[in-house]
């Protein structure tokens, strides 16, 4: 179970990403936190997301914790299922 302190830290980090990095995600840790915050804002559990995407709960956990070796195809599937899109600014 996640402590409230960890949850607050994740929320502060998400705010930091949105304000100071202007939504730019440059590493797997940041991507994981964005995915985690989006999932939680939708009121979904890791299990619910995993079942809806056809991936394991362990994959969702690894993705949210920023494991750099997560499969990009599955990560994109998870992102789409919770309403996130991958975009490029062309730079």
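^ structure tokens above, recovered residues below v
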């Amino acid at each position: 179970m996640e402590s409230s302190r960890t949850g607050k830290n994740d929320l502060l980090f998400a705010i930091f990403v949105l304000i100071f990095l202007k939504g730019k995600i440059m590493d797997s840790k940041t991507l994981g936190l964005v995915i985690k915050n989006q999932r939680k804002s939708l009121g979904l559990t890791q299990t619910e997301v995993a079942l809806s995407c056809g991936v394991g709960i362990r994959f969702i956990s690894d993705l949210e914790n920023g494991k750099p070796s997560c499969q990009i195809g599955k990560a994109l599937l998870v992102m789409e299922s919770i309403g996130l899109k991958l975009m490029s600014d062309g730079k």
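The mean pLDDT is 83.
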